[in-house]
Design a protein that fits this description.
By secondary structure, this protein is an all-alpha fold. It has helices at 2-6, 11-19, 25-39, 45-63, 75-84, 90-106, 112-116, 122-145. The chain is built from eight helices and no strands.
């Protein structure tokens, strides 16, 4: 059960089946979060927050037995992307998702790489949550500008 949840409800295992590598498993996990976000799009911000907190808790629970951050683990990307979408709609929502995913992939923003170096399971999840916070900030900024 933990492996299924850690794989983003199985989606993280799909990359290896499709193209023989774990590359892209995180992006597939982010797509799961986008699907969840679309379902909750008209919900109040506190529902988004509750969903994100639950995903963070699931991520730390499911990845606890893992050492490092295996490529097939995608629940952390689900959690981070859900953080990015809290309370946002429209173009700001899209911007937040793109920024969060970019920050997670490239780890150039302050704190993202450092968060990843935390011990498991915290490091597996924390870098995605920090990247999600960057996405959320970009979404708020976009909301103010649009």
């Amino acid at each position: 059960m933990r492996r299924f949840v850690a794989a983003g409800f199985g989606i993280g295992l799909l990359a290896r089946r499709l193209w023989g590598s774990d590359n892209g498993a995180g992006t597939l996990g982010a797509l799961v979060a986008v699907g969840i976000g679309l379902v909750a799009l008209s919900a109040p911000w506190w529902v988004d927050l509750s969903i994100a907190v639950a995903a963070i808790a699931l991520s730390t629970w499911a990845t606890a037995p893992e050492t490092g951050d295996p490529g097939w683990v995608a629940i952390d990307e689900v959690a981070g992307t859900l953080v990015a979408m809290i309370g946002l709609t429209g173009a700001a929502w899209v911007i937040a998702v793109v920024v969060a995913r970019t920050m997670d992939i490239f780890k150039v923003a302050p704190g993202v790489a450092a968060a990843e170096r935390l011990p498991s399971p915290w490091g597996v999840t924390a870098d995605d949550v920090v990247a999600g916070l960057y996405g959320l900030a970009a979404g708020w900024l976009a909301t103010g500008l649009l």
